[in-house]
Every structure is written in C-alpha cells, then in structure tokens.
Amino acid sequence: MANRQTARGLVLVSLLLGACGLLPETRDTMGNAEKAKLNLQMGARYLDMGMLEVAKEKLETAVRLDSSNPETHNALAVFYERIKQTEAASESYQTALSKDSDNFSIKNNYGRFLCEQGKFDKGVALLQESMASPMNTRPWFALTNLGVCHAKQNDMQRAEDYFRQALQSQPDYSPALQEMQRISYQNGQFMSARAFLERYLGVAKHTPETLWIAFQTERALGNSKISEEYREQLISSFPASKEAQQVKTAISK
C-alpha cells in the first residue's frame, strides 16, 4: 500500500500556535516550568522544520526542566517516529497519556501510531476518543487518521466515510483530499479524482503519488496530452521516486 500523508501534526499545530515569535528565547529570570515550555515550543518548531538534531536538544531540555508536561512527551514521541525509533516513540506516547489521559492531541498521535504498527483496535479506539472530545476544535486530524487506519485494513467504505467527514469539518485539508483522489481513482470515478486533485492543489503541492494518480486518471479519461504532461512532471520533479519508475513502465506498455 502506498505511503500515506497521515495527520501526525496535531501536537505541532497546538504547540506552534502557542509560541511567541518564530523562535522564542529563554531568559534568566524564568522559572524551570516556563523555560521548559519555551524549549518545548522551540523543539516543536524545529521538528516541524525538519531540523531534527536541534529539535531533539530542545525537547530533551524541556523534559529535563519539567518532566511533568505531557505535551513534551507527546512531541518527543513524534520526534522518535521521525527517526524511526519505534520503541522509544511508544514509550513516550504511553508516558504522555499516563500524565493526561484526556488529552485529545496525544490520543490522536498515539492512535495513529498504533494503526501504523498494525494495532488497529486500540488505535481506532484512541482516535475515536480524540475525535469525540469536546475540547478538540480540529477533529479532521483524527477523522483522517481513522480513515487511513480503516484503509490499512482494506475497509475502504468506512475509510471513505471518515475522509468525507474530515472534509466536512475542514474542506481544504490536504491529506484528506489526497486520500479521496486515491479512492475515487480506485473506484473508477475519474472525474471525481480530478476534482479532488484540483482542490488539493489549491492548498498543497504535488507529491509523486498525486502525479501518478493524475497521470492514470487522465489516461483513463482519454486525455493523452494532459496525461503526458503529468508523466513529464513526475519524471522531472521526482526522478528517484518509485512512481517515476512506474510511469516509465506504464508508458512502455
């Protein structure tokens, strides 16, 4: 199954919204708890920017200054996922949840993580709790992750239902739009696949997969000129991707 752009960013979104300025600095007059919070916000920013070494430093400093903050362990878990340390990520998620069992952000991230590890029942349960939390003002994160979780189990109807719910909550949420492009193509609904791609491109850039599906969609619709444009864009923009190799093979057939 193709790699999915799952909605793992809820912890980063919530922390970044609370940050002051681009990269806030600690001051000597601050107490440990306040310094820890700023290091957490900086760590989340660096993590979002892909600067993993400095993100690790800031997040570990935040834990050292105040180990009681569940969001720090939540962010650390996301960091460990990024560097593919699955066991450390699992431990950090469990620690985060033990410190705040009602935190919808932690439940979203941990539930998504469990689904990616094939632990579907527990993952779905946590995602449903996150989605249903009255404190969760961004339910489309959990809804999209629920859709991905069901897609991994080949329950495509329920997956589509969740993606559509996510888009009802947030019509321009790009991961859900990309999922609906894929599902529409798989269902032979080529005009729908094109429409979801157009919506996706209004808020995000092409990925190898969106180009690959767009190529197949336009070819299925008989639009050889447009499909050729997608083929060229895929090969030129993402030459090392598996989709670029697939499109070369498809053309040669």
TrEMBL record:
<dbReference type="InterPro" id="IPR013360">
    <property type="entry name" value="Pilus_4_PilW"/>
</dbReference>
<dbReference type="InterPro" id="IPR011990">
    <property type="entry name" value="TPR-like_helical_dom_sf"/>
</dbReference>
<dbReference type="InterPro" id="IPR019734">
    <property type="entry name" value="TPR_rpt"/>
</dbReference>
<keyword id="KW-0677">Repeat</keyword>
<feature type="repeat" description="TPR">
    <location>
        <begin position="36"/>
        <end position="69"/>
    </location>
</feature>
<dbReference type="Pfam" id="PF00515">
    <property type="entry name" value="TPR_1"/>
</dbReference>
<dbReference type="Pfam" id="PF13432">
    <property type="entry name" value="TPR_16"/>
</dbReference>
<keyword id="KW-0802">TPR repeat</keyword>
<dbReference type="InterPro" id="IPR051012">
    <property type="entry name" value="CellSynth/LPSAsmb/PSIAsmb"/>
</dbReference>
<feature type="repeat" description="TPR">
    <location>
        <begin position="70"/>
        <end position="103"/>
    </location>
</feature>
<feature type="repeat" description="TPR">
    <location>
        <begin position="140"/>
        <end position="173"/>
    </location>
</feature>
<protein>
    <submittedName>
        <fullName>Type IV pilus biogenesis/stability protein PilW</fullName>
    </submittedName>
</protein>
